[in-house]
Design goal:
single chain; 139 residues; 7 helices; globular
């Protein structure tokens, strides 16, 4: 999905669906869609849409930090939590079940983790997250 030219359209679809879910009173369902939209827009640099997704997420009751140029390469708290669970040997479906998200959402976050950490495998993830100086925030 990283290389597709349809990423802006995909992000917009998540945003619109999330907005609709929120307006239908399905805040919890809306959060997953809006988080995905926010992350996609942030990664591809569509700041105005990212801000719109952030405002929608906040309207669902979720706290969202603004991403600056300096924090774009840092793992988000959700990415960090997913990376720790993957490092501990859980599969995508197991991580999804534990966090109440889909396995595909876990897969999406894992791709972002790999990109941000400059790695290509879970084996490298284990080595990277166990290096000295690597913080391990509580879940």
């Amino acid at each position: 999905m990283r290389r597709t030219r349809l990423r802006p359209e995909l992000a917009r679809a998540h945003l619109l669906y999330g907005e609709w879910l929120r307006r239908e009173g399905r805040r919890v369902d809306a959060r997953e869609q809006l988080r995905t939209a926010y992350d996609l827009f942030t990664v591809i640099g569509m700041e105005a849409f990212a801000e719109r997704a952030r405002r929608e997420l906040m309207a669902t009751g979720e706290t969202v930090r603004k991403r600056s140029a300096g924090t774009r390469e840092e793992l988000t708290p959700q990415e960090e939590q997913i990376a720790r669970l993957a490092r501990d040997g859980l599969s995508n479906p197991e991580i999804g079940a534990q966090l109440f998200i889909s396995a595909r959402t876990v897969e999406w976050h894992m791709r972002k983790v790999f990109t941000k950490l400059g790695i290509t495998s879970r084996r490298q993830l284990r080595a990277t997250l166990t290096q000295p100086g690597q913080t391990d925030r509580p879940a």
